[in-house]
Specification:
Shape: elongated
Structural class: alpha+beta
Helix content: 10-25%
Strand order of the largest sheet: 4-3-6-7
Oligomer: single chain
Largest sheet: 4 strands, antiparallel
Number of helices: 3
Strand content: 15-25%
Number of strands: 7
Radius of gyration: 27 Å
Distance between the termini: 74 Å
Order of helices and strands: HHEEEEEEEH
Length: about 220
């Protein structure tokens, strides 16, 4: 065997080892798609408002009972994963009051949560807006969205025509993760000329465990 052959054979184990190591590293990195971190969380520092809303959407549900009007469940690695840094999520309720002039919409309660998507959060109805407390002239719109409180220009348009049978509203922003509309059930008598129109009451204190502005 020549000196060249011996040198070539002695270098083969090192070449194989380097190749195997490279393959393992490639496989490991391939498992961390997009902005995932090795710790199992996702970095959201470069996400747009619409991307944060899409992450939030599958986690939101509306049980509708007195204890949990809005629920935000943890995100598993299989459906988006928790975040590495918390984001602000606003849960907001608007009172819908049918009047002779249409349907008035006034903010009833807003709760701010900071969430990683790794814990359960629930928010109850404001006083007077649970199913057994609303009359036929009163409805409620509830939404979970990311970032700062909605501005006037981001709220839905044409709410004056909301009534029984209405299923959707159109927010003027892409920050909405999910919403649910419960319009006044019997708005027509409320709009009869000569009948006093309901006056929305001041937002009551909330019994939610984190208060109105949870850090």
């Amino acid at each position: 065997m020549s000196r060249t052959d011996r040198a070539r054979r002695s270098s083969m184990p090192l070449t194989v080892a380097v190749s195997v190591t490279a393959a393992l590293l490639t496989a490991g990195c391939a498992g961390l798609t997009g902005s995932a971190h090795a710790g199992g969380c996702r970095a959201d520092d470069t996400w747009s408002p619409a991307q944060r809303a899409r992450w939030l959407r599958p986690a939101v549900s509306f049980p509708g009972d007195a204890d949990a009007a809005v629920a935000i469940r943890p995100r598993s690695l299989a459906d988006g994963g928790p975040l590495c840094e918390p984001i602000a999520v606003q849960v907001q309720f608007w009172r819908l009051t049918a009047t002779a002039a249409g349907t008035d919409m006034t903010s009833a309660l807003r709760v701010r949560l900071a969430t990683l998507g790794s814990e359960d959060r629930t928010v109850g109805f404001p006083a007077g807006l649970a199913a057994g407390e609303r009359d036929g002239c009163t409805g409620v719109l509830m939404a979970a969205y990311t970032g700062a409180p909605l501005t006037w220009s981001e709220l839905p348009e044409d709410t004056g025509s909301l009534g029984s049978g209405t299923a959707r509203v159109r927010f003027r922003t892409d920050r909405i993760g999910a919403y649910r509309l419960l319009p006044p059930a019997h708005p027509r008598p409320c709009r009869t000329a000569g009948r006093p129109t309901p006056t929305p009451s001041a937002p009551p204190a909330t019994a939610n465990p984190w208060g109105l502005d949870h850090p």
